[in-house]
Amino acid sequence: MVANQANLFLIFTINGILIGLLFDIFRILRKSFKTPDIITYIEDFFFWLITGLILLYSIFTFSNGEVRFYMFIAIFLGCLIYMIIFSKAVIHINVSIIKFIIKILNIIIKIFAIPLKALINILQKISLKPIHFITINIKKIHIYRNKKLKTHNT
Question: Over the chain (154 residues), what is each successive 10-residue block's mean pLDDT?
C-alpha cells in the first residue's frame, strides 16, 4: 500500500514536471512571437485543457480514478522542482534557438527578395507594354475620329 502510494507520488511529481514544461512552452511562444490578446487567451485555454487532460489521464490510469490529497502535493512539488531547476535554462535555450532560426529565415527571405523584386519589375514592364500600346492607340484613334467628324460636319 505504501509502495503504491510512493509510486503514485512519483508519477504525479512527474506530471507536475510535465505541466511545468508545458507552461514553459507557452511562455517560450509568448517571448518569441508577439500575439494579440485574443491569441493569448486561446493559448491559456489550451494550456488548461491539456493540463486537465494529462491529470485526468493520470488519475484514471494510475490510481483507478481515486483522487488523494498527496497527488496535488506531488503535482505542486513537480512544478516547483521544474521551475527552480530547469525553467530558466529551457526558456533561454529555446528562445535563443527560435530567434536564431528567425534571423536565418529573414536572411534567406532577403536573399530571395531582391531577385524576386527585379523579376516582378521586369514582368510588369513586359506585361504593361502591350496594354500601354493599346491605350495609346485607342486614344489616337479616338482623337483622329473626332477630328474627322469635325471636318466632315463643317
Answer: 88 97 93 89 94 95 93 97 96 94 93 86 80 78 74 65
- pTM for the full predicted model: 0.69
Only one residue has cell 512571437, namely 33
Nearest one of 114, 19, 2, 22 to 68, comparing CA atoms: 2
Give CA separation, 137 vs 132, 142, 143, 145, 146, in Å: 9, 8, 10, 12, 14
Of 67, 63, 57, residue with least CA distance to 18: 57
Query: Which phi and psi angles does 127 have, rounded to 5°?
Result: -75, -25
152 vs 154: CA distance, rounded Å? 6
